[in-house]
Design a protein that fits this description.
heterodimer, A: alpha+beta, two-stranded antiparallel ribbon, two-stranded antiparallel sheet, 5 strands, 30% helix, B: alpha+beta, five-stranded mixed sheet, three-stranded antiparallel sheet, 8 strands, 47% strand
């Protein structure tokens, strides 16, 4: 990340501080536990996932939703960065809806 | 006098025996739900361990907490994130499955528009008992 990008991020982050007190009302969160896909509490909104070696959209969908067939939901919200749904790359950041 | 000494020894031995039995019973009945590991990072491996452990983040990062628990059965695991001014950033509760054992859970938070710079605090609670804390910085 370049200097200007970092500067921009800092300015944008600090813009959320109003009257000396930051606003966390738009924070999005989520969680999951191994071995119990039914126990996964889904976040209120999208979150980011970094692709690792061996990943595919269906594997990510299986892990995130417990259903590999839901890969298209991930594909749809990442169309801007995924040209071919069969090709994703380690290090690529995907939004998980 | 000699009889008195033997009597004292026997009494002491009986006390030790009783104490031993007592401690064993206590261990058997003590819950062993606990948090073994808390890690922070920007991304996770497939097994929910942290790929790149750190306690320093950038405003645009998604912040992940990976928690290893060891439980006898189902338990409630809560991650409470707070800012340096004490303000609650987020609080999420996750159920540890009834199978128990050593299990990895993950919590993550993300803020559209970026995190305010400063120090943050993560408190992990297992079944209403504070089981660990982590500090991290956004800069």
């Amino acid at each position: 990340m370049g200097f200007l990008d970092k500067l921009f991020d800092r300015k944008r982050a600090n813009a959320a501080v109003k009257g000396g007190r930051p606003d966390f009302s738009n924070v999005e969160s989520g969680s999951s536990t191994a071995g119990d896909p039914n126990a996964v509490s889904r976040p209120a909104g999208p979150r980011m996932y970094t692709v690792v070696k061996g990943d595919s959209l269906s594997k990510i969908a299986e892990r995130e939703y417990g259903d590999a067939n839901r890969w298209r939901e991930i594909y749809e919200v990442n169309r801007a960065t995924i040209k071919n749904p069969n090709l994703i790359y380690p290090g690529q950041k995907l939004r998980i809806p | 006098m000699r009889m008195h000494s033997w009597g004292s020894l026997a009494f002491g031995a009986a006390l030790l025996l009783m104490a031993g039995c007592g401690s064993k019973a206590k261990v058997a009945g003590t819950p062993t739900n606990k948090v073994n590991v808390i890690e922070l990072g920007r991304s996770l491996n497939a097994d929910r361990t942290v790929k790149d452990p750190t306690d320093i983040f950038q405003p645009t990062d998604t912040i992940y907490a990976s928690v290893e628990t060891e439980t006898l059965g189902s338990a409630m695991l809560t991650a409470r994130w707070t800012f340096e001014d004490g303000q609650t950033v987020d609080s999420t509760t996750q159920r540890v499955p009834a199978s128990g054992g050593v299990i990895r859970s993950e919590f993550h938070v993300w803020k559209p528009g970026g995190w305010p710079v400063g120090k943050y605090h993560l408190q992990i609670t297992l079944d209403s008992t504070v089981s660990g804390v982590k500090e991290f910085t956004v800069k």
